[in-house]
Amino acid sequence: MDDLRRIVGADGVVTTPGELAVYECDAYTLEKFVPRAVVLPRSTEETAAVVKVLHQRKIPFLPRGAGTGLSGGTMPEEGAVMIALTRMNRILEVDVRNRRARVQSGVVNVQLSKKVAPQGYHYAPDPSSQSSCTIGGNVAENSGGPHTLKYGVTTNHVLELEVVTPDGRIVHLGARTEDAPGYDVRGLFIGSEGTFGIATSALVRLTPLPRAWRTMLAIFDSVDGATETVSAIIGEGILPAALEMMDHLIICAVEDAFHLGFPKDAQAILIIELDGLDDGLDDQAERVMQLCREHRAREVRRATNPIERDAIWQGRKKAIGAVGRFAPSFCTQDGVIPRTRLPEVLRNIAAIGEKYKLRVANVFHAGDGNLHPNLLFDERDPEQVKNVFLAGNEILEECLRVGGTLTGEHGIGVEKIALMPMLFSEHDLALMTRLRATFNPDGLCNPGKVLPSGSRGCAGEFVLRKEQGA
Amino acid sequence: MSYTVESREPREVWVPGSPVEIARLVQRAAEEKLAVVPWGGGTHQGLGYALTGYDVALSTARLNRLVAHEPYDLTVTVEAGMTLAELDSVLAKHGQRLPCEVPHPERATVGGMLASNASGPMRHSFGTPRDLVLGMKMVLSGGQEVKGGGRVVKNVSGYDVVRLFVGSLGTLGVIFEASFKVLPRPRHRRVLRIDGDCLDTLTSADFSLAFLELFWDGQPHLYVGLEGEKKLVESQAKRLRDAVEDDAYAWLRDLPHDHPAPVVLKASIMPSDVLELLRTLPPGAQALASAGVGVVRLFVSPETVPALADTVQRMGGTLVWERAPAALREQISLREFLGDSRPLMQQIKEAVDPAAIFSPGRLP
Lengths: 470, 364
Hints:
Shape of chain A: globular
Helix content of chain A: 25-40%
Oligomer: heterodimer
Number of helices of chain B: 13
Distance between the termini of chain A: 22 Å
Strand content of chain A: 15-25%
């Protein structure tokens, strides 16, 4: 600890139990563990020096941004030191002409967009947690958000990463310019969930803010009507900037919390946003509204000014927070399925909820098939907790059954490790293990995440990690 | 078809008909210590650093089926030996397309496009194959079949092996199948030429261009691509003064392959540095730039290379070979543009191809 204090200063090392408790989990609250210590460096050099010390002593460590992760990626293993990047929050460079910005990993996602908005730009990947999550965390998870349908995910917007490797060296992955020569080690690092090293800064693309938007809200009396509309819009050759769906429970939660005028008897709401240059947008919007009505929308509203547009998005971005009104705890799932299987899968998810006596509130990126079923429960009741694990697993098995995948945004973390063998063969996992070993040969950087090892459970069984004494 | 690479001929050409056959052949190569170069349409075999061995060309010509096209999911899955032209005609049946271009789509294959991360004018609006591929299946040097990604557009399960293989120039394994996200075909399209350099206007957010190519022959000539709803195309065309209709798209797309220059390099620099780089070229040298992204094909003669490398280095960009005689590649390295992650790349090559059979020397 003294070595670490010498590097980051006495106020950069947290060891008192009360303060450490804050770091015991991220937004995946089903598993908790308090780190041995938390170190808060202020620069890349400090980060590298800290990692060198830990590496020399063979002490496991892991990076953390804002702790908004939903798969337990920042849950420490026993004895691990957490390296929190939150003090490295400076925007280092903005080059509007070349549409690039360089930021430290601790910069909050929405702060970057706010900084370049006056010049007509934004940082496109916009997770719903963007007012808290950090760019470093986005890199670790390859984060998406509602606009990925048109704009892509983090890997499509990061050009270069400055990375501290697990043995404390500083390397640059990618390049400041396009088409970096050699292997796409930058692409391999993105989404590696903090198991390949620590990204300390990123050079990212800036995207012009669209000149115009058309944002619509369609209200349906049935989930099927909403999901059929999604397919119809895509089939028409229209690619919205965003296409989001919320079901009955979420609508009620959001309306009670924010009074945005959402009808509480609706079974599903679609938010559809088109963007681009103004010419031609009205024609597209008309076509979209027509399609909604053809598929039994009860009502279609269109925002006529930025305030109305913001109100529509408020309802979506705060949806998961609003769900807290209905239950003390919730677990957000993250499976992806082919869009065309939405109606069938949503029906099966409802059935799984009934089987385990759990209410399920669905809000998700319908345009890209990325589901977020929220299982509502009370974590003080071990029977409900067990049911949440079982229901969650069944939902993901359902996603795989229809040709989908385990996670679209939240990552594998600890939450889904046991399911990896359902999606990947032993050769696939062996390749990933070898790749991890090239970055992290001693296995000290964020151990116990992403890849199953002998010691972690098997599918169908769960073990609630013990909480350390308070 | 000729299987020559940098004046080297292979001893044999293998043409497997299935992934299982690929695996058997690859295992044989590992046992007999043969250097294998995976082969699609042969349009991009000039990329990378100098090959240090070449015994066998492994062609994907027989692996050219459509596996699945799901128009309402906007995804398509094909075997790697399918040509880009064939893929385009499959997607056109449902009014869709994959906006990835390579020179000579009637020869170039999907697998080759992925291995080279090749792109053309449309990268201005849609990016490169790396941005459009969803999943991939490969055979590694131990004969194992592996996959990365899947058939859905959002996927962060496990490590991003797909991104690693894209652009790996046939040095990590044999890609035999891939899935892509596809997009609607535009209803209207126009290509206009402007003889001038009004780049600042055209790269501003007041325009939404499909592509912006700059051909240099001592003077800048801009080719602007407009696509989409009729109103959108026409209103933008009206705002382009001094523009004439010139549908040179196919010429622009094929030029990186067809240009007769002895040496072709690709420089990646800041878009704001493009004109400055072009002005350093000697008379007679030509270039084709995707001006909005700063990627420049340079059509030059060998003696120009060292000065170009210095200029690009000074500008903080990168430079790679696209066509050059083997002797030149050995004389001038260009490996310094790999940066400080080169040791990591070497470790990855050793980890993924421990038998060292795939396109040795080409990367890193």
